[in-house]
What does this fold into?
Amino acid sequence: ATAEIVTIDGPSGVGKSTISRKVSAALGFTYLDTGAMYRGVACYLEECGVDIGDETAVAKALANLDLQLLPAKDADSDVGVIICGKDVSAVIRTPQMSMAASAVSKLQPVREKLTAMQQQAGSKGRIVAEGRDTGTVVFPEAAYKFFLDATPEERARRRVRQLHEKGQIVDETEILALTIERDKNDRERSLAPLKKADDALLIDTTEIDITEVCGRVLAAVKAKR
Ligand code: C5P
It folds into this structure.
């Protein structure tokens, strides 16, 4: 394969971030968290007071967007985000901001801007991109594509555990409802909906742990390399 690009897509709470960080470390590739970018934009538009129902206003605000990603400190930490010089790394990780990110991710000017930034970041290859549309829209030519899935109940449990580790106390029933709603938004939108690329390898992670998933991803990459 020419540009070595790994794409890892799937619904929320499936373990994409942890797995992507571990896989990128094992391969010595850069990790690109595209969800962090949508979260950053949601935060930015909120701070600017932009009405997200007004696509012209959204497009105008995006022209002044200055978004930078801070690399994850280790395999257990999230990628950070700096918006116009302000560190929003913690605020973007709340359940509220997850829903806000899902709402702005429907908008054409937002997708256009972030897709271009992501393609730029991956232009030299050796990247592990993680999100909802990295295998279908952002990097359709990627050599190694994966789609992770798990039941909504298992994904909600994983989310709750993650949020607890960050010190956020949340209700599991509420997180399950939000998980289902967010997936529905992401699967049913018209632009770049969440779906498995035809040539992606599907891994159901419901019954298998992170080490096992990483092992399968790395084995599949190795077999094709
Ligand atoms: O992956 P994460 O949960 O951080 O993503 C937050 C939201 O950003 C998703 O629910 C989805 O609406 C949006 N997103 C997207 N396309 C991507 C990555 C994330 O629409 N490639």
